[in-house]
Amino acid sequence: MMRIAALLLLLAASALAQTPMTAEEFAALVTGNTLTYAQNGEPYGIEYYGENRRVIWSFLDGKCQNGRWYQDGANICFIYDFDPDPQYWRFYDDPQGLRAVFATDPTNTALYQVENGDLALICDNLGV
After folding, report:
1. Would you say 66 and 56 are in contact if contact means Cβ atoms under 8 Å apart?
2. What pTM did the predictor assign?
Protein backbone atom coordinates (compact mmCIF):
# COMPACT_ATOMS: atom_id res chain seq x y z
CA MET A 1 0.00 0.00 0.00
CA MET A 2 2.88 2.37 0.80
CA ARG A 3 4.40 1.69 -2.61
CA ILE A 4 1.18 2.64 -4.37
CA ALA A 5 0.93 5.88 -2.37
CA ALA A 6 4.56 6.71 -3.15
CA LEU A 7 4.01 6.01 -6.85
CA LEU A 8 0.94 8.25 -6.92
CA LEU A 9 2.87 11.06 -5.23
CA LEU A 10 5.70 10.65 -7.72
CA LEU A 11 3.29 10.79 -10.67
CA ALA A 12 1.58 13.88 -9.26
CA ALA A 13 4.93 15.60 -8.70
CA SER A 14 6.13 14.81 -12.22
CA ALA A 15 2.90 16.21 -13.69
CA LEU A 16 3.38 19.43 -11.75
CA ALA A 17 6.99 19.67 -12.87
CA GLN A 18 6.08 19.48 -16.55
CA THR A 19 7.62 22.26 -18.62
CA PRO A 20 5.25 24.87 -20.07
CA MET A 21 5.07 25.12 -23.86
CA THR A 22 7.16 27.71 -25.68
CA ALA A 23 5.59 30.21 -28.07
CA GLU A 24 6.81 28.13 -31.02
CA GLU A 25 5.32 24.90 -29.64
CA PHE A 26 2.06 26.66 -28.77
CA ALA A 27 1.78 28.31 -32.21
CA ALA A 28 2.45 25.01 -34.00
CA LEU A 29 -0.36 23.36 -32.04
CA VAL A 30 -3.05 26.04 -32.17
CA THR A 31 -2.63 28.23 -35.27
CA GLY A 32 -5.58 27.81 -37.62
CA ASN A 33 -7.61 25.91 -35.02
CA THR A 34 -10.62 26.64 -32.89
CA LEU A 35 -10.29 25.12 -29.42
CA THR A 36 -13.08 24.60 -26.92
CA TYR A 37 -12.12 24.63 -23.24
CA ALA A 38 -13.76 23.26 -20.09
CA GLN A 39 -13.18 23.89 -16.40
CA ASN A 40 -14.14 21.27 -13.83
CA GLY A 41 -16.00 19.37 -16.55
CA GLU A 42 -18.16 22.37 -17.50
CA PRO A 43 -17.89 24.31 -20.79
CA TYR A 44 -15.82 27.47 -20.27
CA GLY A 45 -15.07 29.10 -23.62
CA ILE A 46 -13.94 28.80 -27.20
CA GLU A 47 -11.05 30.48 -29.00
CA TYR A 48 -9.94 30.73 -32.60
CA TYR A 49 -6.17 31.04 -33.11
CA GLY A 50 -5.35 32.84 -36.35
CA GLU A 51 -2.19 33.85 -38.15
CA ASN A 52 0.20 36.39 -36.63
CA ARG A 53 -0.87 35.38 -33.10
CA ARG A 54 -4.34 36.87 -33.49
CA VAL A 55 -7.24 35.32 -31.52
CA ILE A 56 -10.99 35.58 -31.13
CA TRP A 57 -12.33 34.52 -27.70
CA SER A 58 -15.89 33.81 -26.53
CA PHE A 59 -17.30 32.63 -23.21
CA LEU A 60 -19.87 30.71 -25.34
CA ASP A 61 -22.37 33.56 -24.99
CA GLY A 62 -22.28 34.86 -28.57
CA LYS A 63 -20.06 37.80 -27.59
CA CYS A 64 -16.53 37.63 -28.94
CA GLN A 65 -13.40 39.61 -28.32
CA ASN A 66 -10.50 40.12 -30.68
CA GLY A 67 -7.06 39.84 -29.20
CA ARG A 68 -3.50 38.70 -29.65
CA TRP A 69 -1.03 36.56 -27.74
CA TYR A 70 2.68 36.69 -27.04
CA GLN A 71 5.24 34.88 -24.89
CA ASP A 72 6.59 36.39 -21.66
CA GLY A 73 9.02 33.99 -20.00
CA ALA A 74 7.19 30.71 -19.37
CA ASN A 75 3.81 32.39 -19.94
CA ILE A 76 1.64 32.76 -23.00
CA CYS A 77 -0.06 36.12 -22.52
CA PHE A 78 -3.28 37.36 -24.07
CA ILE A 79 -4.46 40.92 -24.55
CA TYR A 80 -8.05 41.48 -25.70
CA ASP A 81 -9.82 44.58 -26.97
CA PHE A 82 -12.07 44.61 -23.89
CA ASP A 83 -9.20 44.50 -21.40
CA PRO A 84 -5.77 46.04 -21.97
CA ASP A 85 -4.29 44.12 -19.01
CA PRO A 86 -2.54 40.94 -20.14
CA GLN A 87 -3.77 37.56 -18.95
CA TYR A 88 -0.88 35.21 -18.19
CA TRP A 89 -1.35 31.50 -18.88
CA ARG A 90 0.94 28.49 -18.95
CA PHE A 91 0.09 25.85 -21.53
CA TYR A 92 0.99 22.17 -21.35
CA ASP A 93 0.64 19.55 -24.06
CA ASP A 94 -0.87 16.71 -22.04
CA PRO A 95 -1.75 13.28 -23.49
CA GLN A 96 -5.46 14.16 -23.09
CA GLY A 97 -5.04 17.52 -24.87
CA LEU A 98 -3.97 21.04 -24.16
CA ARG A 99 -4.05 22.21 -20.54
CA ALA A 100 -4.01 25.91 -19.65
CA VAL A 101 -3.17 27.11 -16.15
CA PHE A 102 -3.81 30.72 -15.14
CA ALA A 103 -0.32 31.81 -14.06
CA THR A 104 -1.43 34.35 -11.45
CA ASP A 105 -3.61 31.79 -9.64
CA PRO A 106 -2.54 28.27 -10.68
CA THR A 107 -4.52 26.59 -7.88
CA ASN A 108 -7.83 28.10 -8.97
CA THR A 109 -8.04 28.17 -12.75
CA ALA A 110 -7.09 25.30 -15.03
CA LEU A 111 -8.74 24.83 -18.40
CA TYR A 112 -8.68 21.68 -20.46
CA GLN A 113 -9.11 21.43 -24.20
CA VAL A 114 -12.18 19.35 -24.92
CA GLU A 115 -12.46 19.87 -28.66
CA ASN A 116 -10.15 20.89 -31.48
CA GLY A 117 -11.14 21.54 -35.02
CA ASP A 118 -13.23 23.65 -37.28
CA LEU A 119 -16.07 24.29 -34.86
CA ALA A 120 -18.14 27.36 -35.55
CA LEU A 121 -17.25 30.34 -33.42
CA ILE A 122 -20.55 32.23 -33.11
CA CYS A 123 -20.01 35.95 -32.55
CA ASP A 124 -23.17 38.05 -32.59
CA ASN A 125 -21.18 41.23 -31.98
CA LEU A 126 -18.47 40.64 -34.63
CA GLY A 127 -20.53 39.20 -37.45
CA VAL A 128 -18.61 35.90 -37.35
Report:
1. yes
2. 0.79
Q: pLDDT digits over 99-119, tens only? A: 999 988 766 678 888 866 655
d(CA 73, CA 96): 25
Q: For 15, left (φ over 0), alpha (ψ -120 to 50), or beta?
A: alpha
pLDDT digits (tens, 9 = 90+) for 35-53: 999 988 888 899 999 999 9
- Which structural domains are found in the chain, ordered by start? 17-117 (2.40.128)
